[in-house]
Specification:
Blueprint (H helix, E strand, L loop, with lengths): L2 E5 L18 E12 L2 E13 L6 E12 L2 E12 L4 E10 L4 E8 L2 E8 L2 E8 L5 E2 L8 H7 L3 E7 L4 E17 L2 E12 L5 E5 L5 E6 L4 E5 L5
Length: about 230
């Protein structure tokens, strides 16, 4: 169940004081996706994933910028995700949303709960909802988040946290094996994962042997994100 508390508008978006997540550490992956919707190129997603520390003290940081020009208007996202430990369990998530309805969501994940603060020009909301052990964060229109899912498993079920919808759902993951995929003017042997959330659209995800995300297709939304070049 989700709890919501609504306060008067005490803060403007320009005065937000939330501390941004740092992206220091050893590079795990970085790159750019070219994003298409309904067969039309609509923008890009750039991202960087870094790691520091080891064992239980390991920290994985994923930061990105999504800039899309959709029929419904411009969508600009700046997601930041911090994972903790060898399993990269999500510990903190922040996303800045620009456009017609700007907002910032800052969530802390732990002890079986997500505690999120959502700030808009109209005011502030605090929300709390369940986060099952082993959950991963998959924000809508953020392709590089599937790296964390692929690191967790290639087959089975996994709880999925969707921050901008303030909810969790269960997704079934199916391993379709290796396939040859055309990317950036060439071809690559990639692992094809099918991610089917309960009550949500299916995502076809292709990752390399290091679980770096190369392509994401969501057929029901006619959405496709493809790397502009293969990682080395």
């Amino acid at each position: 169940m989700t709890k919501t508390l609504i306060f008067p508008a005490l803060l403007a978006l320009s005065a937000l004081a939330a501390r941004p997540l740092s992206a220091q550490g050893t590079a795990v992956d970085a790159g750019t996706f070219r994003v298409s919707v309904e067969g039309r190129e609509v923008g890009t997603e750039t991202f960087s994933i870094t790691q520091s520390g080891s064992g239980g003290a390991a920290v994985t940081l994923a930061t990105g910028t999504v800039d899309l020009r959709l029929n419904s208007g411009a969508l600009r996202l700046a997601p930041r995700l911090r994972g903790q430990g060898v399993a990269m369990n999500p510990a903190q998530y922040q996303v800045d949303v620009s456009g017609d309805s700007p907002q910032r969501i800052v969530g802390n994940i732990g002890s079986g709960r997500v505690s999120a603060r959502i700030v808009t020009a109209a005011g502030e909301q605090l929300r709390e909802y369940v986060a099952t052990a082993g959950a991963v964060v998959l924000d809508d229109a953020v392709a590089h988040h599937y790296y964390f899912l692929a690191q967790r498993l290639h087959s089975g079920t996994v709880p999925v946290i969707i921050p901008r919808e303030s909810r969790q759902m269960i997704a079934a993951v199916t391993d379709r094996g290796e396939e040859t995929v055309q990317v950036a003017g060439g071809s690559a042997r990639l692992f094809h994962l099918v991610v089917q959330p309960r009550g949500g659209p299916q995502a076809d995800v292709w990752v390399d042997a290091l679980n770096r995300v190369i392509r994401v297709d969501i057929p029901a939304r006619q959405y496709s994100a493809v790397r502009t070049e293969l990682p080395r």
